[in-house]
Amino acid sequence: MTYTITSVIVDDEPDAREGLEMLIKNYLPDVKVLDKAANAEEAIRKVLLHKPDLIFLDIKMPGKDGFYVAEELEKLGVETTIIFVTAYDQYAISAIKHAAFDFILKPVDPDELTKAIVRFKNIREKESLKEKLEKLTFFLQGSQLKFSTRQGFIMINPDEIIYGRADGNYTNIYLTKNRKEIITQQIGQIEKQLDHQLFIRVNRSHIINVRFINAFNRKNKIIELSGEDSPDIEVSQTGLKKLMKL
Q1: In contact, 163 and 174? CB cutoff 8 Å
Q2: Average pLDDT for 160-189
Q3: Alpha-carbon gap, residue 35 to 8, rounded angstroms
Q4: How would residue 195 be classed by pLDDT, with cut points 50, 70 and 90?
Q5: Does 73 share its domain with 183?
Q6: Rounded Cα gap, residues 3 and 120, in angstroms
Q7: What is the pLDDT of residues 150-163, one digit of tens each?
Q8: Is it the case that residue 172 has pLDDT exceeding 80?
Q9: Residue 174: what pLDDT?
Q10: In Å, what is the CA distance from 2 to each residue of 29, 31, 112, 119, 133?
Q11: Residue 122 clears pLDDT 90, i.e. is over it
């Protein structure tokens, strides 16, 4: 017996709502659209009414946006899965990814829509809506990240991190303006805190901020970083695969 995934579509554009519903009907027979909403208030009302498994949620709407909808649903104790459907800017998309929300870019491609539903079905360990929203807000506000030190902790703006280097159970973080911080966390823990779209674990010992890459020599697998005294870093085979996806 096939389980039917119930959903609500939220978008201020009628053509977008109808188009997405048509794609769902044509490509996803196990997904049922219970209702559609054109604005934030209507979305909240219809989600509370239907309690869907899934919300296809536009971000950029007149008045209150999709982030507002997600925050209000969390306050009301609604536990549902949100897939953002957006033509939004890259920074917001990085934030969405960082917060572990899924998203589909407009115009919606049937293959990408299908992949999103496959991901939804395969999720085993879900973070709560509250946990995801905390990450999203943290990222969008440009907040600093908290890292443990021998003295206590330090707040660091991830945009200022050039690279991190493992040192046993510690990690040395190299920052702009020739600064360095010794973090009492293993590099694997540091990796989990950083945005995987901007930071790549290029080998067992190094994480780099891709914004500081000057050049990459594929022949000898060496990355040249900007920043005074930044070393050339050798890329592992696994790191190379990640790098080539940029």
Answers
A1: yes
A2: 94
A3: 5
A4: confident
A5: no
A6: 13
A7: 998 888 888 889 99
A8: yes
A9: 95
A10: 10, 10, 22, 17, 31
A11: no
Among candidate residues 103, 121, 140, the one where a domain is terminated: 140
Phi, psi angle pair for 210, to nearest 5°: -65, -20
Concatenated DSSP letters of 10-33: E-S-HHHHHHHHHHHHHH-TTEEE
Q: State the Cα angle at 80 between 4 and 108, rounded to 5°.
A: 70
Same domain, yes or no: 134 and 43: yes
End-of-domain residue from the set 95, 114, 140: 140
Rounded CA separation 219/221 (Å): 6
Over range 99-124, report the average pLDDT.
81
Q: Which domain holds residue 213?
A: 145-244
Integer Cα distance of 43 and 66 in angstroms = 9
pLDDT of residue 7: 96
Same domain, 124 and 164: no
C-alpha span between 90 and 88 (Å, rounded): 7
